[in-house]
Structure formats: structure tokens, C-alpha cells
Design brief:
Helix content: 25-40%
Structural class: alpha/beta
Shape: globular
Number of helices: 25
Strand content: 15-25%
Largest sheet: 7 strands, parallel
Radius of gyration: 31 Å
Number of strands: 21
Distance between the termini: 38 Å
Length: 693
């Protein structure tokens, strides 16, 4: 039996697997015997010894054996079959709510049975509900299980017994052959990785003396062996993508400084050291003949937009167009205003494209993009549409990239592809990404961090307060606005429904107008037309409104330096990264700023932890690490919808310490494309194309 046969033998090779069972297994992503072997147990039961009934405690799970002393039907709120089982050490009740006449006859007094279940406290003392059981014969020795019993992740219509039988069959195939060791022996010895076949065997049928706590936590050497190889496959696939991108070539954007120098003179502030460093890294990338793939992380307000503007100027100086894309019309419009203010005095034309642009205006913009007279184009995902054609796109800047699906980002890159050349890509995010995710999800990107805030920014003080103290909060708003400051009031709802969120915001705005008749109060939510939203934001920015009631649509990119108080209702319903983004809307000027997190009691343990982190720190990276710990990588990256980052065995949080080793091994194995491809194929197989971002 060789690797090819195990990786390619369909599960239908196993006895008893017909079309119906095959479909159920496919729901678990099991197509081949190798898939089945990599479908690992969630936990284990110990059925290797018989426990004395007298020694049982509530919560114990185990095998007992004894004689039925009584079996009666008890009539309570629910009819049940109640059996009293006795061994030499004590008595316990077995209770069945679903039973047949035949079952009652099988459990008559004097019958000897062996059963398995969880002990709990019931009406008659210690009880086991619906135990698995079988009759045993006193005259014959019935052996107990030789290894721990695995409990597998399953799907409707597929029980544990069937899954165990199937894995027994797959393990027999494994005994006659093997899964090929793809990690070279010298590296396995260096990192003390046990043999793959031994690890797989061990995890499906652990011996009696296995450390169950270690297995449950996922830290057993056998689990780590598989997690290591899976992380390695993901890493190699990202390196392969990067290599592929580099092979395609890109325009060499050599800057002559004619726009950049004037831009720097016109800027009303000097760049921070971090902005200068990151700009130099980008400039060096753009001058290379292969595509830049750089992720710039900068906390809220760190000045990423200026860095992006410098990159677009280099593209224009090199004779190419640049596209700047943002996830919402509010943010895209803000970028358009910033870029127009900065670049038009230099004699450059900035085009604008969003969904709301219709008719002749839209046509005019499409024409200047296609004929190249617009050197810089700012827009939303409208830039992806087929009718948008660039004259010569050399640089794509994507802001808040985790909000776009993989395919959308690819589509924009494809627009600039000509003669086997792709545009450079600069990806920006104000959501700090934990180092563990950067090393795994973004291994195909170079990462830069703007880790310095511009001078004059004041830290935001965060207060956690119960919504029972709402009148005090309203008074705080009155005081702040009385001193000439502006305030945000953000409404959140647990329901996904945008309609309900908007309704909540409308009700809140009305209540606040009654409580604060002297203030000018505006309302903004997701169901308004883009022009309405833009109008309200413009009035708020021009200080024509004192208080802005909003849903979370204001999360990204709104810049009002005079706003110094942010109230967030029900903050326990939002992720940490989102709270951090919202809080970043204040503290943009030199006056002391506050963020009030107004929660609704009682708070869950996780809710308390999240709000405590927000109170303790404004460090986006610490917040991101905590967010990852509490919510997991799929939600932090916003990649649930793209199918990205789904691991069979590895867990990014638990196995973070393996990533440095994985990176080292990947760089050694990347030189052998055949071996790399075999590892990628084994673990990613059907999903390998997922990561082409």
C-alpha cells in the first residue's frame, strides 16, 4: 500500500460504504482513506476497565457491570423505564425515557449487563440516563476495550459506532502500508517529530495509559506532529503564491521626485519616523521588477493615508495610474477628498467611482480612467466592475483589506495585468493583526507597522459604566457639548438585522432630542442613501451638529478632530477590534477624550474580559491578541466567508509557538517544489487555491 493509494483510495473501498454513507462523509470533508485518517477525535472515553459502582461520583463516565435487581416503569412527568443495577460494591439506577417492550423484557431481574454512560444525580440518587449496554454471560470472559474510545466530530445520520468501524478499516489499510513521510528525516530529528504513521495510529486508538488531559488540550506530541505538518502546508502554499506573483513581473516604478518633493513641502506637518521608514520600504518595493505585496498595519490615526499618497505619487512619476479602494462609500469619499486636496495642487487629476455615481457623471469618470487622464482613481468595490478599464494600472492600494473577499481583490489585480505583468499591491489596515496571524494568514506579504502616533494626539480614557446610569451619561454629553466639543453616540444590536439596528438608532436619537433640546443632534445609519450619509457627515465635520447618533457605520475612517466623547451602547455585543476601531474616532485632536462603554447587566465572563481589556489598554496589538484568544482567527480576520484559514488539526492560538519553526522549515523545503507540492496537496488538496489574495 503506498501513499498514492491511501490519498486516492475513495472511502467506498471500505466495507459497507455505499452512496448514502459516502454523501454523509463528504459533509465532513472525507473523500479518501487519507481524509478519514486525518479526521481526528475530539476527545476520548475510557472503556478499558470496569469501575466499581460503589466508587462512582457525579460526573464520572465509565464502564460498570452488575446484575439487574429490579426493572419497572415509573410514571412521572415523563414515563421512564427504571432499572436498579447492583455489583458487590453498590447499586445505581439506569433510566430510559425511550424504550420498547422488548427492551423491558431484556432487562428483567437477574440479567447480567455491562454498560457505559455518565453518572449524574437523579431522583433516586446516582443515575445513568440512556447508557449503552449489552448482556454478558457469567460463564464467558467478555474482554474490555484495549484502547481509549475515540469520539469523532460527526454529522446527522452518522453515529460514533459507525465512524469507529470505518476508522478501524482505514487503520487496517495503514497497517499494510503507510502514509509517506514528507518531512525529511534530518528535520524530523532536529524538531523531535514522531513518525507520521505512529502519530496517526496513536490518535485514533490511544493506549490505556495515554495522558487524556494532554490529548484533550491538543498538546500531545502526536497531535503536535500533525499540526506542525498542516501549518507547514499552509505556509508553503502562501510562499508558492508569493513566488507565482513574483514570476509575473511588474512595472518598475522609478521615482524622480518631481511630485513627491512638492507634496512634502505642501504638507502642514512633518512625517513621523515610522511613516518615513514605511514609505522607504514601499518605495524600494515599487522600484523592483516584480509585484510588491505589502501589508501596512497602523493603529487608528497613525497616518497610513499619507503613506499611501506617497506610494501613488511614485506610481504616477513612473508613468502609471494608481487605484485606491475602500470598503465603504463614507471612507472612499473621505479618501477622495484627502487625495484631491493633496494631489490636485500638484496638477494631478483624481477620479472618483462609487455605486451611487450614475449616468453622465459616471460615464465621464470611466472615460478619464480609460484614457489615462486621471492618474489616481479612488473608489469602492465599483472599481471591480467589468466596464471599468484602466489605461495602465501600476499600483493598487486596498484599505481595510479584510472587508473585501479574496475574489474581489484578485479581480482588481487582474485589471492591471498586461503582458504577464501585474500591478503592485499595497494593503492597509487599521485593525492590528496579531503576530501569529501575520505569520500564517499573511505569509505571502511583507509586513510594515506604523507604530508611532503623530504628535499632538491625546490618549483616550475609557470608562466602563452600566446602562442604569444613563442619566449621568446624558449629563456628560450636555457638559462636553457645552464646552464646544462634539460627541458620538453609537447604537449596537445583537440582531444581524440592519432594519432593527436603524430603528434602535432612530429611537435613541429621538430620546436624546427630548433630553437635550438645546443640542443639534444628527442621525446616521446603514439604510440611508449614500448622499444623505455624506451630507450628515459633512455637517458633523463642519461642527453644525453637536451630537451624532450612529450605528457602527462610522467605524472606519471618519476624522473629526473636535469630537472628544464616544458613547457605545451594549459594547459587549461587539468584537474587541471593532470597539477599538470605534474608539479611534475620538482622540484625534489635542483635547482630552473619553470613550464610555455603556453595558447592559449581567455581563458574561467573556464580556467582562473584553471590556476590561478595552479599559486597560489603547495598544491595538494587545487588543488584537486578546481578540484572537477570545474569538478565534476566522472572525478576527473576517475570513469566515472566504473559506480561508480552516484547519483540520492545527489551532493558531494553541499552536502559535510552532510558527517560528514552521517558517524555518518552509524556507528550507521551498527549494524542493515537488516535496512542497506533495505537502500542500496532502493538507489543502481541494482548497489550495483559497489563498490567492
Amino acid at each position: 500500500m503506498n501513499e498514492r493509494s491511501l490519498a486516492q483510495l475513495p472511502v467506498t473501498e471500505l466495507k459497507g460504504v455505499g452512496a448514502a454513507l459516502q454523501q454523509k462523509l463528504e459533509k465532513l470533508d472525507i473523500y479518501t482513506l487519507q481524509d478519514l485518517l486525518f479526521h481526528l477525535p475530539l476527545r476520548y472515553q475510557d472503556r478499558t476497565r470496569i469501575m466499581p459502582i460503589g466508587g462512582l461520583r457525579p460526573g464520572d463516565e465509565g464502564v460498570i457491570e452488575g446484575e439487574v435487581r429490579a426493572a419497572d416503569i415509573a410514571m412521572g412527568r415523563r414515563r421512564s423505564l427504571v432499572c436498579r443495577l447492583q455489583d458487590g460494591s453498590g447499586t445505581i439506577t439506569l433510566r430510559f425515557f425511550h424504550f420498547s417492550a422488548a427492551q423491558k423484557n431484556n432487562l428483567k431481574t437477574g440479567t447480567r449487563i455491562r454498560c457505559f454512560g455518565e453518572v449524574r444525580t437523579g431522583a433516586s440518587g446516582l443515575e445513568i440516563y440512556h447508557p449503552e449496554y449489552r448482556r454478558v454471560d457469567d460463564s464467558v470472559i467478555t474482554p474490555v476495550e484495549a484502547s481509549l474510545t475515540p469520539i469523532y466530530p460527526t454529522t446527522e445520520g452518522l453515529n460514533q459506532a459507525r465512524l469507529r468501524t470505518l476508522t478501524d478499516g482505514a487503520l487496517e489499510y495503514l497497517a499494510n502500508g503507510s502514509l509517506t513521510e514528507l518531512i525529511p528525516e534530518n528535520l524530523r530529528q532536529q524538531w523531535r517529530l514522531p513518525p507520521l504513521n505512529d502519530a496517526v495510529n496513536y490518535l485514533h486508538r490511544p493506549p490505556v495509559d495515554a495522558d487524556q488531559a494532554q490529548l484533550l488540550d491538543g498538546y500531545h506530541p502526536a497531535q503536535r506532529r500533525l499540526a506542525f505538518e498542516e501549518l507547514l502546508a499552509h505556509h508553503l502554499s502562501l510562499l508558492k503564491l508569493r513566488q507565482r506573483a513574483r514570476q509575473s513581473g511588474a512595472p518598475t516604478l522609478v521615482a524622480d521626485g518631481r511630485y513627491r518633493n512638492r507634496f512634502m513641502q505642501l504638507l502642514p506637518f512633518p512625517l513621523t519616523g515610522a511613516q518615513q521608514r514605511v514609505s522607504e520600504e514601499i518605495a524600494a518595493d515599487l522600484s523592483q521588477p516584480y509585484p510588491m505585496l505589502r501589508l501596512v498595519q497602523g493603529d487608528v490615526g497613525s497616518g497610513k493615508t499619507v503613506v499611501a499618497a506617497l506610494a501613488t505619487l511614485q506610481a504616477v512619476e513612473g508613468g502609471y495610474q494608481a487605484a485606491v479602494m475602500a470598503p465603504t462609500e463614507i471612507l472612499a469619499e473621505q479618501h477622495f477628498i484627502s487625495f484631491s486636496n493633496w494631489l490636485e495642487p500638484l496638477g494631478l487629476n483624481v477620479a472618483w467611482l462609487a455605486g451611487k455615481l450614475k449616468g453622465k457623471k459616471r460615464q465621464a469618470q470611466l472615460e478619464v480612467i480609460e484614457d489615462g487622464s486621471a492618474q489616481v482613481v479612488v473608489g469602492t468595490h465599483a472599481l471591480f466592475q467589468d466596464e471599468v478599464r484602466f489605461a495602465n494600472l501600476g499600483l493598487v492600494v486596498v484599505d481595510e483589506q479584510h472587508r473585501f473577499g479574496v475574489h474581489q481583490r484578485l479581480a482588481l489585480r487582474e485589471k492591471g495585468r498586461t503582458d504577464h505583468r501585474a500591478p503592485h499591491q499595497l494593503i492597509m489596515t487599521a485593525t492590528p493583526i496579531p503576530r501569529t496571524l501575520t505569520m500564517s494568514a499573511y505569509a505571502d506579504l511583507d509586513c510594515s507597522v506604523i507604530d508611532e502616533l503623530p504628535p499632538g494626539r491625546t490618549p483616550v480614557s475609557t470608562v466602563v459604566i452600566s446602562d442604569q446610569r444613563r442619566p449621568e451619561v446624558v449629563q456628560r454629553v450636555r457638559d462636553a457639548c457645552g464646552q464646544g466639543r462634539q460627541v458620538y453616540w453609537v447604537c449596537t444590536l445583537i440582531e444581524e438585522s440592519e432594519a432593527l439596528q436603524c430603528q434602535a438608532a432612530e429611537v435613541t436619537a429621538e430620546e436624546l432630542r427630548e433630553a437635550l433640546p438645546e443640542l443639534r443632534i444628527g442621525l446616521i445609519h446603514g439604510r440611508m442613501k449614500p448622499a444623505e450619509k455624506a451630507g450628515i457627515m459633512a455637517r458633523y465635520k463642519a461642527a453644525e451638529l453637536d451630537l451624532l447618533v450612529a450605528t457602527t457605520v462610522i467605524e472606519v475612517g471618519v476624522d473629526v478632530p473636535n469630537a472628544s466623547v464616544m458613547i457605545i451602547e451594549n459594547p459587549e455585543r461587539l468584537g474587541l477590534a471593532q470597539l477599538h476601531q470605534l474608539r479611534g474616532r475620538v482622540g484625534r485632536g489635542s483635547v482630552e477624550s473619553f470613550c464610555l462603554l455603556m453595558y447592559h447587566a449581567p455581563l458574561s465572563q467573556q464580556g467582562r474580559e473584553r471590556l476590561a481589556v478595552m479599559r486597560e489598554t489603547t495598544d491595538g496589538f494587545r487588543i488584537a491578541e486578546k481578540d484572537l484568544e477570545l474569538r478565534g482567527p476566522g472572525e478576527v480576520l473576517g475570513t469566515r466567508q472566504t473559506g480561508m484559514m480552516s484547519f483540520k488539526v492545527a489551532d493558531l492560538q494553541r499552536d502559535a509557538d510552532l510558527l517560528t519553526r514552521v517558517k524555518q522549515v518552509a524556507s528550507q523545503l521551498a527549494a524542493d517544489p515537488q516535496l512542497s507540492d506533495a505537502i500542500i496537496q496532502r493538507w489543502l488538496g481541494r482548497d489550495e487555491q483559497y489563498a490567492a489574495v
